[in-house]
Structures are given as C-alpha cells and as structure tokens.
Amino acid sequence: MSHRPYSTSAYREAARALAAIGRRIYGQGWSPATSSNYSLRLNEDHAAITRSGRDKGLLEETDIMVVDMEGAAVGDGKPSAETLLHTQLYRRLPDCGAVLHTHSHASTVLTMHWPADHITLEGYELLKALDGVQTHDTRLTIPVFENSQDIAALAAEVDRAMDAGDAGHAYLIRGHGLYTWAADIGACYRQLEALETLLAVELDRRRLG
Ligand SMILES: CSCCC(=O)C(=O)COP(=O)(O)O
Ligand SMILES: [Zn+2]
C-alpha cells in the first residue's frame, strides 16, 4: 500500500513537542520506569511516536520515530510496544491529532482495587478541561479494559467498545494505565492533566469512604 509522504519539518516539530511533553508528564510522576508512550499525527498515513523502552524523564527528539497507521516502523528502530493502541485511534478518528498514555499511581490503584469495567467521573468543574465538555454537570464514563500483552487484540477490543459508543475521551487498562486523545498536543495534555487529577481525587474519596 502506498502512503502519502509526511513533511520532514512536521516530523521535527512533532519530535520536539513529544520530547518536551514527555519530560513534563514524567515530572508529574505519571510515567515512571520507562513506562508510557506518546504520539502525534503527522498526516493521514503516519504518526510520530516514542521509541520503546525510553526513559521519559530524559526524553529527547532522537527518542521519537515514525510509524505508519498499520503500526509498522518507518526507518530504523523499535517503536513503542503499544503502537497499535495509538494507530487504532488515528485510524478510527480522523480528527485525532495526539495520543498520550500514562502509568499513574491513581489509575493503577483504582483499576486494581475496584473490579468494575468502568470508572465514572461526575460533577467536577475540572471536567470542563475535556474537549467538548461545557459544564460540571457532566458524567464521563471511562471504560476499563483488562490488561493484555496481546496489543493487537486489545486494540480490537477498544475498537469494538467505540462501535458501541464507549470511550469518548479516554480509557483505562487494568493495572496498567490511561489512554487519552485529542485534536492536538495542547488539548491532549490539558485533558490528561484533568483526568489524572480527577482519578487521584476519586482515589482519595474512595479511601475516605
Ligand atoms: C515498563 S512499562 C511496560 C510497557 C508499557 O506499558 C509502556 O507503556 C511502555 O512501553 P514502550 O514499549 O512504549 O516503552
Ligand atoms: Zn503502558
């Protein structure tokens, strides 16, 4: 299959932006021990994504590479082991321009301690940081998928959930972390920060009973 070429300057700009956002996310404590992956759409057929196994606190432009929307590497190196979870979103959602995945303490405890297949966030003013949300009087249901080392199967499961109308802004993977996406890196980071904050709040509230 032939792919439309991406621009080199778009790639360089994406690599700069992803390295900077990765270091920022690491600083928040949401990407420990090389966990997490981040990507940006370059065009219809390509995305820039973190290489596998990189320390996100030390992320540099050279830690970013290009994949096609089938998840295949373009050029040398090994892209994130979870690349197919990014490309599933880009393929399905033409307006999706950025995907961020984190491994926070809150998302891990919440999904390991409570067996539910979703977490609901409701009534929080901070929900207005999410794309398209205008009022605190909003109920956001975040699906929780079981963790798997079969990333292709997990991506297919996410796709089926989206067919059913679930997973509008984000999803969780049990004992693993959070995926969220938006039109651009700024909106995606804002959304991530809101969701991680609200998940931490939710965890505290459940601890308090
Ligand atoms: C050390 S965390 C295990 C892998 C993972 O869940 C992750 O997010 C990082 O994988 P990658 O291949 O993108 O480095
Ligand atoms: Zn992960």
UniProtKB/TrEMBL annotation:
The keyword RNA-binding does not apply. SUPFAM superfamilies: AraD/HMP-PK domain-like (SSF53639). Gene3D superfamilies: Class II aldolase/adducin N-terminal domain (3.40.225.10). Binds 1 zinc ion per subunit. It holds the Pfam family Aldolase_II. Its cofactor is Zn(2+). Residues 16-203 form the Class II aldolase/adducin N-terminal domain. It comes from the Bacteria. Belongs to the aldolase class II family. MtnB subfamily. Catalyzes the dehydration of methylthioribulose-1-phosphate (MTRu-1-P) into 2,3-diketo-5-methylthiopentyl-1-phosphate (DK-MTP-1-P). NCBIfam families: PRK09220.1, salvage_mtnB. This is Methylthioribulose-1-phosphate dehydratase. It comes from Alloalcanivorax venustensis ISO4. The gene is mtnB.
